[in-house]
Amino acid sequence: MGTLLEYRTRARELSNTVNDGNVTDTWLDSLANLHLSKVYDRLVDAGPPDLYASTTQFTTDANVAENALSITFRNLTGVWVVESDGRCRPIAPMPLGALGNYKAPTAAATIRLEYIPTPPVLEDDADTFDGVSGWDDLISNHMALDVMTKQQTDPSEVRNNIAREEQRITIRSKGRDRGPKFIADLDEVATWQWPYGWSGGSRISVYRLRGGNIELYEPFWGYP
Q: Which domain does 202 fall in, by range?
């Protein structure tokens, strides 16, 4: 867990610019957020995908397919219908080109959605980022590399630090529980879904992501 102030301080130390007035806090803050987003992507890809996951639950409107996603939405890890008995039934991605087989849900339903949010943006000195196992040291090293590249000083030490930390992420990720979750792939062919849901439950069976929305559908076929 590191703070914005710690990332700036570490970057200055690595680049030997502690007292350099040309290396401003504003510039370093922008570098910190730039490289935080890249480190975040690496950690999410290393798994498990729900390490940074958020959960939200909402109720749909009858005859409306579109439901707005959070502005912090990045990747989907799972979506379920919460049935009247409290059980969660998974919903599959809509098969490519199959929109003609589905319609907007004819009844309201409760939806549970788990997703990976976008990375945090650090603005205040005390704002933090969870680097899990010290992997956020990559942020400071990449910041220092940018500073040293601009000042045309030798960045070999920070390059070695970066290579070492990236290798550590790769090695350690093999032993982290990746879990049964998935990152949504809109080209993925959904498994066949029973159109009636569970006994007395919703008929919503597929979803797709489009234009900042998650669209939920039930099949035309089957009982009304």
A: 60-117+182-219
